[in-house]
Amino acid sequence: MRHIRTVLRAAEPAGPAIRLLTLMDPDGWPLPKFRPGAHVDLHLPEDRVRAYSLCGDPAQQDRWLVAVKREATGRGGSAFLHDGLAVGDAVAASLPRCTFPLAPDAMRHVFVAGGIGVTPFLSMAAALDRGGGDYVLHLLHRDAVPLPALLPRATVLHDTAAAGRPALAALLGGPAPGLHAYCCGPPGLIAAFEAATAHWPGGQAHVEHFVPPPLLPDPEARPFTLVLARSGRSLDLPAGAPLLPAIRALGAEVEASCEGGICGACRVRWLEGPPIHRDRVLRPEERATDLMACVAGCAGPRLVLDL
Amino acid sequence: MSVSPTWLGTVAHLHITARAFLPMRGMPAIELVAGQGIRGDRYMIGTEEGFYSAKPEAGRQITLFEEEALECIRRDHGITLLPEEHRRNVTTRGVPLTHLVGRQFRLGDCLLEATRLSIPCRHIEEILEKPVFDPMINRSGLNCCILEGGTVRLGDAIRPA
Q1: Fewest 10 Å CB contacts: which of A146, A149, B115, B119?
Q2: Considering the domain boundaries, does residue B3 fall inside one?
Q3: φ, ψ (nearest 5 deg) of residue B97
Q4: A94: number of CA atoms within 13 Å, CB side?
Q5: The pTM is what?
Q6: Is the distance from CB of A283 to CB of A290 less than 8 angstroms?
Q7: What 3 state SS string does A222-281 have?
C-alpha cells in the first residue's frame, strides 16, 4: 500500500511537552482534503503507525498541522516525533479519515476537550468560524494551556489543577433540539462525559478516544474458518483468535493503525459471515458490507473476505 | 473521397497531479510527450509517482473520461462526481470513448491510441469518501498511449484520426 509523501517543513513547541509539526508535500502541491475532526496515520520507523488529529484549518490545503504530546510511558511514537524527526525529514502518512465528524444537522456544538484532546476541535472550530457555525470549546487543562496559538476565540479555559474538574452537566446544558456535544480527552473525562450525556437523545453526544478502549474477551466466541475470496486461501481460527494477524498470515495486505476498532484503517469488505463487529467506528449500514479487521470476529462457521 | 467522422468532440477539462492521493489540478493546457506521458503528471515516465507506477504500461501515459458519464452517475446513483474527482487527465464532451479501444484518434493536434478501457479502483473511494466504485464499472474512461505529442488546450477538438 502506498502512502502520502510529506516533508516536515516546520516544528515548534506549542505547550506542555507538545511539538507542533507542519507537514507539506515535497513540492508544495495541495494535500488531500480533510473533513473537520479528521486524523491521519503517520508511518514511523520500525513499522510504528500512530494516529494524530489534523489540527489546522481544513481550508488551508497545502499543509497539515499535527500536535504531538510526548508520552513518557507511550510506545515510542511520540518520542520519535519529538527527538528523532528534524525539519526537512520525510514523513509517510495515510489519507485523512474522519471518525469524529461535526453533526451536519446541529444548530449548536459544545466541545469538551481534555488537554491535548483539544486537537480534533481545532479543525472543527476553523470550519465553523468560516461558515458562521455556533459553538463553544471548553478546554480542561491541568498543566499549561496546550496549543495556545491555535485556540479559537470561543474557547473557555478550565484550569483543573486550580479548581478541579468542572461539572460537565452544567457546561453542556441541554439536552436540547439541535444541540450536539463532543468530547475528546483521557478516559476519565470521556467516562464523565458519557455519564453526563447518558440521558441525551441518541446521536447527539459524540466521543473520540485517544487510545482504543480495552477489548473485552467475548465469552460467546466460536471457532470459524477464515477464507480470502480473491486468493482462495483459508485458515481455521480457534475461538477468540484475532482476525488481523490471520489475514496477514494468509498473505493479504491490510493497513492497520489503532488495532482497537476506532480509527478505521483496517476496513475490509466481507462477503459471507455474519461478522461480529465490535468496532466503534462503522455505522450500521456500513457494517452490512464492511468490517474492521482488527476487532471483528464471526458468528457463523465461515468468514469470507473480499481479499 | 473523404469520409466525414461520425463524431466530433471537445476537451472540457484537463487535470494533472504530482503524486498518488493528491488532489487533481485543473489546467488550461497540458503538454503531451510521445511515448512518455504528460509533463507534471504522476504517470510521466521518469516520475513514477502514480498509485500504479509499479505496474507500468503504455496506456497509463494519458487517461480520458466522458463528461457524459459524470451526468449518468448523478442520474443513476445520485452521486455528484466532479471533473477533478474522477482522476483521469482529460474530460471529454461528445466522444464515444468506449468505441475507441484499439483505435487512433486526435486530441487537439496530438495523436493517441486507446489501449483499453479504464478500470475503477477502490483507491478512489478512499480518496473521495464517495461510493463511486460500482457506479464507475464499465464507464470509468479510457487508457491511451501518446503517439504524437504536443500541447492540448481546453476546447480543443477531439476527432477520429
Answers
A1: A149
A2: no
A3: -60, -40
A4: 28
A5: 0.80
A6: no
A7: CCEEEEECCCCCEEEECCCCCHHHHHHHCCCCCCCCCCCCCCCCCEEEEEECCEECCCCC
pLDDT digits 0-9 by tens, B16-69: 999 999 999 999 999 999 999 999 999 999 888 888 787 788 999 999 999 999
B35 domain residue, yes or no = yes
Please give, rounded to a whole number of angstroms, the shortest distance from the CA of A32 to a CA of chain B: 5
CB A288 within 8 A of CB A276: no
CATH number at residue B32: 2.40.33.20
- ipTM, interface predicted TM-score of the complex: 0.83
Q: Which amino acid does the sequence have at B70?
A: L
* Residue B51 resides in a domain: no
Residue with cell 460467546: A220
* Interface list for B 127-146 with A (CB within 8 A): 127, 129
* Element of type H or E holding A101: none
Whole-number Å distance between alpha carbons of A66 and A233: 40
The CATH code that applies to domain A108-209 is 3.40.50.80
pLDDT per residue over A139-183, tens digit each?
Answer: 999 999 999 999 999 999 999 999 899 999 999 987 999 999 999
In which residue are the cell numbers 488537554 written? A115
Distance CA B88, CA A104 (A): 31
Instruction: State the smallest CA–CA distance between residue A246 and chain B in angstroms.
Output: 23
Find all residues with CB under 8 Å of A211, minimum gap 6, and list them: A187, A258, A260
Query: Is A32 in Cβ contact with B18 (below 8 Å)?
Result: no
Spatial CA neighbour of A243 closest among A290, A283, A296, A200 = A296
Cis, peptide link before residue A175, omega less than 30° from 0:
yes
Q: Where are the domains of chain A?
A: 4-93, 108-209, 224-305
CA A80/CA A47 separation, integer angstroms: 12
